[in-house]
Amino acid sequence: CHPVPKPESRMEVCDLSPCPPRWKVTPSGPCSSSCGLGLAVQLVTCVQIHQGKEILLEERLCPVAEKPLTSVPCVIRMCSYEWSFSEWTECSTSCGNGIQTRQDFCLNPLTRKHVNPIFCRHFPKAIVVRGCSAGPCPEQALGTGSHGAELQTVTPAAHLTAAAAAKEARYKDLDLPLSAVPAVTQEQAKETSGGEEDTTKSNSPSFWMCFSSVSCCTGVCGNLFLNATGVINMTGVESSDCTVAIGRPLGEEITVSVLQSSLNCSAGEVVLFSGRMMWRTGCRKLPLSLINSRTNTLIVKQRVLVPGNGVILQYNSRTATKKYYQDCDKQLFGPQGEIENPVQLPDQREEVVCRTFINVAPRHRIAIRALSIDLGNESNHTHFNYVLVRDVSTMKTMVFRGKQQFFWQSTGSQAEIEFHE
């Protein structure tokens, strides 16, 4: 540019009017949780740039609808939870055989605080019930027998009519294929009725249980719906707390849409949707909601304060997008049925833990009785062979080992059984 005359340098005045007020976000606090989901606090102020300088203004001068949140979700790292236990109680008897129990807790190892047991749901847990001996009773020393709390061993022969009665009392499935329900074969009936013992019988651990349910209330509330689709009208119910359940075979997932809602949100009326892999509560804008349980079972709980209020639901089932169960898992719905394990499947890995899910109507409770248990000769000396029964409503578990027959009752309408071999 040297041959070209150079223009003079000069400055021209530009628009000096202040910029419009805007929100300014300044991080001011760490994440409230050292692991898992927490909240981070941030400082939100209303500012304005004037002649290159930032001026603090009153919040009313900034657009209210655009104000950022003062706290935002944060995750530093995922938590790893673990089971913790109280000390064992004293033996339940002063002599003879009894039991000891201990309380289980789900623990955050970083904070050493107890958290909701659902966080430890899929972590292995040690036993919470074990046998104990307080020494021989005086009657035992005299040879007159014991009045201690010894667990009685019931042999399969003691259930002479179990297989025959099972044909009459067997669980009648309302919607599932018969293949979903274990059956008693003629060979098993022969063994159960005290017939000749098969000397070639496998020494694999085996379990034989039965379950039943007991009713506690009436009406539309407390029902279990097993159809592939349907409409549930929960308006005008007499009870302030109304619970219904929806069940489908494993491999399907349930979706629910709210057709109509007359809940009074300001009065605290609410509806809760809970499944094996989700939970959600709501009141406002329910007719626009679509709830996907992601599994084959769903419980809906409604709480109303004004008689006549409630929701009308429409539910559908479809093939699950992801497989959330194993091939040896079983799904049973009430009112009664039988459970056998192991279930022989082609190419089944030995380390697979088979589960049985039991869901009955919310008005019912579940009772499980072990009829025959054989965990092998070394079952009393190993921690790998046991039956775990979980009460889903409280997330409490009981572990049974050896050849111990047991009777178990639920506090809710859902139970899970794990067969660890």
UniProtKB/TrEMBL annotation:
Gene Ontology terms: biological process: extracellular matrix organization; proteolysis
InterPro entries in alphabetical order: ADAMTS_ADAMTS-like (IPR050439), Sperma_CUB_dom_sf (IPR035914), TSP1_rpt (IPR000884), TSP1_rpt_sf (IPR036383)
Transmembrane segments: none
Short name of one Pfam family: TSP1_ADAMTS
SUPFAM superfamilies reported in the protein's UniProt record: Spermadhesin, CUB domain, TSP-1 type 1 repeat
PROSITE patterns, per database record: TSP1
One GO MF term attached to the UniProt entry: metalloendopeptidase activity
Keyword Signal: yes
GO CC list: extracellular matrix; extracellular region
Keywords, in A-Z order: Repeat, Secreted, Signal
Compartments (UniProt record): Secreted
Protein name: ATS13 metalloproteinase
Lineage: Eukaryota, Metazoa, Chordata, Craniata, Vertebrata
